[in-house]
Amino acid sequence: MPFDSEALALIFLTMQFADCPTPAIVMNAAAYSISGANQKLYSRLKTSLQLNLRRQIFLAVCDDLELRSHLVAQLQTALRSPHFVSLNLNLSDPNPMAQVAQWLSQPSNAPTSHSLSFQILGVEHLTRQPASVQKRFLTHLQAIEYYLPGIDGTMVLWLPRPWLRSLQQSAPAFWDWHTALFEFEGDPTPLRSTSQTRLSSDRTLDSAISQFQTPPVLTDTPLSSHPNLSPIVPIPHTETLTEGAPLEESVWDMLTYDLAQLDISNQRSNGSKSKIPPGSTPPVGNASPKDLQNSKVLHPPHPSPRIPHFSSRLTEQILAAIAHEPNLADHQIALRNLQQIDQLLEQRAAQKTIAAAYLNLGRLYRNRLERGNPSPEILDIAIAVHEATLEWLQDDSPEWVDGANDLGNLYWMQSHSPVAVDQQLASLQQAIQTYTLALNTITPQANSHTYAMIQNNLGSAYGDLAQYQDPANNLLKSVEAYELALRYRDPQEDMARDAATQNNLGTACWNLAQHQQPIVRLNQAIAAYHAALQHYTPTCEPMHYAMIQNNLGTAYWNLAQHLKPNPNPKLAHSTLSPTRLLQLAIAAYRTALNYRTVDTVPASFAATQNNLGTAYWNLANLKTTAQDDRAQQLQQAIQAYEAAIAAVESLSAPTEQRPALTFDVCATFNNLGLSYFQLAGDRRNSLTSPQRQTLLESALNQHLQAFQGWEPRSDFYQTTLDYIIQTTRAFHSEFGIQGQTLALSKIPANLLPEVMRKL
Predict the structure, then answer these.
(1) How far is CA 452 from the centre of its chain?
(2) Any idea what the Cα angle at residue 650 is, between residues 645 and 655, rounded to 5°?
(3) Residue 47, domain extent
(4) ∠ at Cα 541 (536, 547), nearest 5°?
(5) Which long-range contacts (CB under 8 A, 24 or more apart) does 654-659 make?
(6) Which helix (H) or strand (E) holds 361?
(7) Of the candidates 398, 399, 397, 394, which has an alpha carbon nearest to the alpha carbon of residue 359?
(8) Beta bridge partners of 85
(9) Per the domain annotation, does 681 fall within a domain?
(10) Helical H runs in 518-623?
């Protein structure tokens, strides 16, 4: 089956959580009241375990973690060790069957005359693990037939309901082998960050439409001017999923399995990429079909069985990989498969037979990639296998088109792997060439499904290419590709893909608006985000719904920056006025925050709170805003900025290092300080002198916090220094020399000489 990078711009996991497993017994079960239905189900589970049956797989489903903990404790007490063992799932290699086997292999755990039973805990913590770890877990479960002979007893796997659905879909063999299902009643419990929770930057995968990490821009204008607005950027591909549901698909899975779900995590770096000088690699955008036909591997196949050049090259690559990864059995199997292919070539076997052998070899490395964290060597081999496969497939066959799409996605994956920047760009260009050639061999009328899928992949690749060179032109091509994907796809038949592509289109339009036709492109982005929202309900998919609401708010905010306020107060709230657009942005951000809470997705919560604060600040500083409303909106901005900062500090506490974020928290400190300063300096409010002093002190403290995060002598450093000096002057103006002395006492000693010179 071909794979599809449909949701590559929907990156939900830039901030990934790694939680420690929950202890098997966490509280006194006797003190907890269990409902009658749950008590009956528990009794059935306990009785089934007491039968000492062999090779049994029980699934115990419970969304209420507190209830689950009590049930687990009751079982442990009733069945007693050593006949009943509780194991916490190893999150670094989540293979429950292997853990059982490892426990049994320890000398102190010698087998007894009774069959042993095991309960496996901690599946819910996989939700905060990278998609590759989640997929590894499901892959291990799928291999149950291999492990089942070693389970000389019963294994109970505790899991929340979303993971049960994921297991049914992605590990059908394990589902077929389960012998009993116990579904306990209870409300879902969101996973909370623990003292050992840490954040790691995933791209970070965050996508095929990469986020533009524009540096914050603070201006040298007076303090009444706008704060740094760059933290507000679309965050469509840097969002975490709800902790109550698993991330069901990895990047490869989304490509391979045709995007059945919108859950995706991409393992890329969020850092800015170096620009490649024009001409350092062949241009792609204007390549003609003839140019593409002459490209590296995609010439329509005219194989010569007498020259097994691909087989020889693959053998060399696999032997090199064996030397690098001697314990990986896949390479040994691949080597044997290549020997069989060589025999087929010597026997001058039919073209279809050789193609089938290469396809089988390709599946081997596809399975390896599904397990996550592929090495560059693995990707190189997978690409070489797919190149060889295309040489032996008929160029007018559906298999050839699917194979070309797969190869394009492999090149795309390689462009996100840890290789040199010029190699990343070259791989990205190869991906675009491959997608384009695949599209040139089919018609959208006859192959609408495949055509739409490849157009979506092409849009993602052009969005990535815009990070390297010619951003306006490549983003325009990205938009055009997404629009073609939507034109030839029936949204009712493929709602998940349609939603993904609509969101991707919105983000591409948002990025394009930063280069050309901002009002036109931002209106396109807003329309696309609204279309994506039609496929979601907050009840069923709260994190996806919240993510797109956040993106919608950003598009409204951005559009407000390009419109002039209407001087007529009666028209200030018209549909296309900055006031109305900022109100819509605030409403969208607040809707997102109903589902992005600090307990469930703190990094996303912080990003949206930061966006909300800036939207309120802009609204407060519109000339059409009434005075009473202005003070209230500045207070709302302060609350939002403080909430964002508090969430970041909470995430930083376990490691004492600031986590990777999708916004610059130093700019947030600065914006917060500016909001305090404006509130203190407004003579039309009825503040007392002590209240005004408190606000100025808060402003100075926030600017000093921001100052610590900037590189010395950078523009941001100088602008923040100006804010510090202006706040110090306000102390003097308001409270005389005593006020200035108070302000200077708060400034670090190493900064005082520079401040004094400018004062």
Answers:
(1) 23
(2) 120
(3) 20-183
(4) 80
(5) 654/195, 654/196, 654/197, 654/198, 655/198, 659/15, 659/198, 659/199, 659/201, 659/603
(6) helix 351-370
(7) 399
(8) 118
(9) no
(10) 518-533, 542-560, 578-593, 602-620
User: Cα(129)–Cα(134) distance, rounded to whole angstroms?
Assistant: 7
Write b or e for each residue in 216-255: b if 16 or more Cβ atoms lie within 10 A of its Cβ, otherwise e: bebeeeebeeebbbbbbbbbbbbbbbbbbbbbbbbbbbbb
Task: Give me 9's structure tokens.
Answer: 């711009």
Q: For the segment 128-175, what is each residue's pLDDT rounded down to a tens digit?
A: 787 778 888 998 898 887 777 777 788 999 999 888 988 888 888 899
Residue 59 lies in a domain: yes
CB 566 within 8 A of CB 574: yes
Structure tokens at 582: 């900022």
Q: How many CB atoms lie within 10 A of CB 27?
A: 12
CA atoms lying within 13 Å on the CB side of residue 578: 22
Rounded to 10°, the helix 665-681/627-652 angle is 150
C-alpha torsion sign, points 97, 98, 100, 104: positive
- Tokens 């979506």, located at residue: 456
What contacts 547, CB < 8 A, 6 or more positions away? 10, 12, 235, 236, 239, 503, 592, 604
Mean pLDDT across the stretch 449-460? Answer: 95
Angle at 662 between CA 695 and CA 587, to 5 degrees: 65
Asked if the bond preceding 538 is cis, omega within 30° of 0, the reply is no
Q: Of 137-146, 269-278, 504-513, where does mean pLDDT reach its minimum?
A: 269-278
Quick one: which of 535, 546, 619, 532 has its CA closest to 589? 546
3-state helix, strand, coil in the chain (%, to 5): 60, 5, 40
Q: Is residue 122 part of a domain?
A: yes
Q: How far apart are CA 593 and CA 296, in angstroms?
A: 49
How far apart (Å, rounded) are the C-alpha atoms in residues 134 and 144?
16
The two three-digit tokens of residue 553, written as one number: 């708010």
Q: Where is 509: in which H helix or E strand?
A: helix 495-513
- Give the single-character DSSP code of 266: B
Rounded-to-integer distance, Cα 218 and Cα 718, Å: 9
Tens of pLDDT along 630-688? 999 999 999 999 999 999 999 988 887 878 888 999 999 999 999 999 999 888 888 88
What phi, psi does 121 have (nearest 5°)? -115, 160
Residue type for position 295:
S
Tokens of 222: 């007076």
Rounded Cα distance between 643 and 613, Å, is 9
Q: What angle do CA 405, 407, 411 make, to 5 degrees?
A: 115
Would you say 152 and 111 are in contact if contact means Cβ atoms under 8 Å apart?
A: yes
Q: Residue 110 sits in a domain of what CATH number?
A: 3.40.50
Look at residue 395 and tell me if it is in a domain. Answer: no
Distance (Å, rounded) from C-alpha 43 to C-alpha 71? 10
Which amino acid, residue 170?
A: S
- Please state whether the peptide bond connecting residue 204 to the residue before it is cis, i.e. omega within 30 degrees of 0: yes
Tokens in use for 569?
């107060």
The domain total for the chain is 1
For 287, residues 6+ apart whose C-beta sits below 8 A from its C-beta are 433, 436
CB 565 within 8 A of CB 578: yes
Reference 4, options 479, 485, 390; nearest CA is 485
Q: Strand, coil or helix: what is 282?
A: coil
